[in-house]
Write a structure and sequence with these properties.
With about 500 residues, the chain is an alpha/beta fold. It has three domains: about 5-205, NAD(P)-binding Rossmann-like Domain (Rossmann fold); about 225-310, N-(1-d-carboxylethyl)-l-norvaline Dehydrogenase, domain 2 (Orthogonal Bundle), CATH 1.10.1040.10; about 315-470, 3-Layer(aba) Sandwich (Rossmann fold). It contains 19 helices and 16 strands. The chain has helices at about 15-25, 35-45, 55-60, 75-80, 100-110, 130-140, 160-165, 180-190, 195-200, 220-250, 255-265, 285-295, 305-325, 355-365, 375-380, 395-400, 420-425, 440-445, 475-495; strands spanning about 5-10, 30-35, 65-70, 80-85, 115-120, 145-150, 170-175, 215-220, 335-340, 365-370, 390, 405, 430-435, 450, 460, 465-470. The strands form four sheets. Strands 3-2-1-4-5-6 form a six-stranded parallel beta sheet, sandwiched between helices. A six-stranded parallel beta sheet has the order 11-10-9-12-13-14. Helix 13 (about 305-325) packs across helix 19. The radius of gyration is 25 Å and the shape is elongated. The N and C termini lie far apart (about 80 Å). About 45% of the residues are buried. It binds nicotinamide-adenine-dinucleotide. Nicotinamide-adenine-dinucleotide binds near residues 123 and 158.
Length: about 500
């Protein structure tokens, strides 16, 4: 094993906390700093502030041995060779990334540097942020030879963050000199030379001692662009398949078959070709906007990113209309909502399509009974329990006497519900699935009216004959019902 490096990680959120325990796991000595005192106290006591697979066990293994938590940035910086900045970079005005948290951290670091340090951008930041950080350090009186700034973007996915960190597809290091690049190589060496994968107790994943992690060294600017371009490309892939889904539905195609057929082409691949409610979370929406802003600053019009955003937002309307079509009118309807997190495997509700959709349904007069395995506490802070918003302890409790069941998050458990029990529990056997967790034919066999994304709605029950229902002349039932409801709403307003 190479010599351990003393590392400071600033920020103990999804990225900072995962990076801290993973650096400890590969043998380094880590101090994780956060200015949220209550979070630091919780972590010092062995508590885990976020839901993330493998995080509790790694925290327990390394707490107070390989990783320490503190609010004292000065002491942490003094003891460290590398300082990873992993604070938030939320969307600011005009789509640009708000870098004020990064700047605040850099100003503080500048006041306690008295020996050579490498500042590492782990947060997702626009191109040239490395330059701004350098300028800021100099402005605050740090001499140039006492620091370097390196970009080391993070590609982990919430839900699989620990395994993604320890078994990365690639490690990107954007360094404008060899000295700082060398330190980053040393930090990641247990992953790039395969020693970690050969060690007893190593968490298994896609990489092995014979097939270790790859580290790519680029300029700092290129590394910053790699991160933004990667997220924008993944968002584009999601919006593309969602646009195809909308088309598929109009011609009785099945988006799951179409995505499978496309994904078998190794140039395309199956990942991120899932039609659904669109992307959410704390990264894609803001990173698409920030990348577009970066292009604008350089006088370029990256129009495709605007289309990606529009298609994404439209998915929520598409789903809303499906709920309305399934129920005719919405006012007074009771809906069971499965899933609040922006995707399965996480408790993160930032920019969650589920929350946007539930708000819209409540505005339309629906009562919601929601269930999510881990995201309910966080959701209660933004959608407090009320006469129109309730929380249930499991999917069946949520479904009790509901007019329909909505699937909003792709938790795997939601794809294997006891359908006989669900049918008994619901008031009407209607499921609107924004994540395509079931096959329409299977739901029809089990007696459900089932609407999903990019596939024809299958109907059962007393209205019309069973199976796919299509009106003559290619008018879709949803269009007809939307029209009827619009007329009813207008009539109500006029009354
Ligand atoms: P987060 O909001 O979960 O965590 C940020 C943490 O930084 C918080 O705990 C906050 O208290 C702390 N903080 C803020 N200002 C501070 C200061 N001055 N001193 C000390 N601590 C401070 O954010 P996150 O999801 O971990 O994301 C961090 C960065 O990583 C963002 O730029 C994000 O775009 C990027 N990123 C996120 C993911 C992801 O999946 N969440 C993946 C890759 C990259």
């Amino acid at each position: 094993m190479p010599k351990p490096v003393n590392i400071c990680v600033v920020g103990s959120g999804y990225v900072g906390l995962v990076a801290s325990v993973c650096f400890a796991e590969i043998g380094h000595s880590v101090i994780c700093v956060d200015n949220d005192q209550s979070k630091v106290k919780l972590l010092q006591d062995g508590g885990v502030p976020i839901y993330e697979n493998h995080l509790p066990e790694l925290l327990q293994k390394h707490l107070s041995v390989g990783v320490h938590f503190t609010s004292d940035l000065h002491a942490a910086v003094e003891q460290s060779e590398a300082i990873f900045i992993a604070v938030g970079t939320p969307q600011g005005s005009s789509g640009s990334a708000d870098l004020s948290y990064v700047e605040a951290v850099v100003c503080e670091i500048a006041q306690c540097v008295d020996s050579y340090k490498v500042l590492v951008e782990k947060s997702t930041v626009p191109v040239y942020t490395n330059e701004w950080i350098s300028q800021c350090m100099i402005r605050y009186g740090v001499t140039r030879h006492l620091f370097d700034v390196v970009s080391n973007p993070e590609f982990l996915r919430e839900g699989t963050a620990i395994i993604d960190f320890l078994h990365p597809d690639r490690i990107v290091v954007g360094a404008n000199n060899e000295r700082s690049a060398e330190l980053l190589r040393r930090i990641y060496e247990p992953l790039t030379n395969g020693h970690y994968y050969a060690a007893d107790g190593a968490l298994p994943g896609s990489l092995t001692a014979d097939n270790p992690a790859k580290l790519l060294v680029t300029s700092a600017q290129s590394a910053e662009l790699i991160k933004h371009a990667s997220n924008a490309f993944l968002a584009l892939k999601i919006s593309f398949i969602n646009a195809v889904a909308t088309l598929a539905e109009t011609v009785d195609g099945d988006i799951e078959d179409i995505a499978a057929g496309m994904g078998l082409d190794s140039r395309i691949g199956t990942k991120f070709l899932r039609a659904g409610l669109g992307y959410g979370g704390s990264c894609f929406p803001k990173d698409v906007a920030a990348f577009s802003w970066v292009a604008q600053q350089q006088g370029l019009n990256f129009q495709i990113l605007e289309e990606v955003r529009k298609i994404n937002e439209n998915q929520q309307d598409v789903f809303f209309n499906k709920v309305r079509s399934a129920l005719w009118t919405l006012r007074g309807k009771k809906l069971a909502a499965l899933g609040l997190a922006f995707k399965g495997g996480t408790d993160d509700i930032r920019e969650s399509p589920a929350i946007v959709i539930l708000r819209k349904l409540m505005e339309a007069g629906c009562t919601i009974v929601a269930y999510d395995p881990v995201a309910m506490d966080k959701t209660k802070a933004v959608l407090p329990p009320s006469t129109s918003m309730h929380y249930a302890s499991d999917p069946y409790a949520a479904a009790a006497d509901a007019d329909a069941l909505l699937i909003l998050t792709d938790w795997t458990n939601f794809g294997c519900l006891d359908l006989a029990r669900l049918k008994e529990t619901l008031r009407f056997p209607v499921v609107v699935d924004g994540r395509n967790l079931y096959k329409p034919s299977y739901m029809l066999e089990h007696g459900f009216t089932y609407a999903s994304m990019g596939r024809a709605t299958t109907h059962t029950g007393s209205i019309g004959k069973e199976g796919k229902r299509r009106l003559p002349g290619s008018i879709r039932i949803e269009t007809l019902v939307e029209g009827l409801e619009a007329q009813t709403d207008t009539a109500r307003q006029e009354a």
